[in-house]
Write the structure tokens for this entry.
Amino acid sequence: MTATNNGASRVRLVPPTGWGITGAFSAAPRLITFEGVTLGLLANGKANSAAILDAAAAAIAQRHHIAGVVRASKAHPSLPVSDEVLGMFAEHVQVVLTAIGD
């Protein structure tokens, strides 16, 4: 919520569809194995999302020899991920997992 000049509160609505321009895209090719990859974990900002992702990463690491894990969180569940985080993932990871927690 934000305050107005007269002290009243108002609610800021965030569109669930986001602000970006959508268009056609093609999905990345499916990985054959997790061996040697770096996982990206993107928590959506809700409670427990990071814990869910950590559990998933631990389960993958028990079955595969992964190179590492890079973690990030969104600023707010209703907002898109930042360009900085997207750039970091694009440069350093081969797989991104995301989770919604509560």
Observations:
- DSSP finds two helices and five strands in the chain.
- The two ends are 21 Å apart (CA to CA).
- The first strand starts at residue 2 and ends at 3.
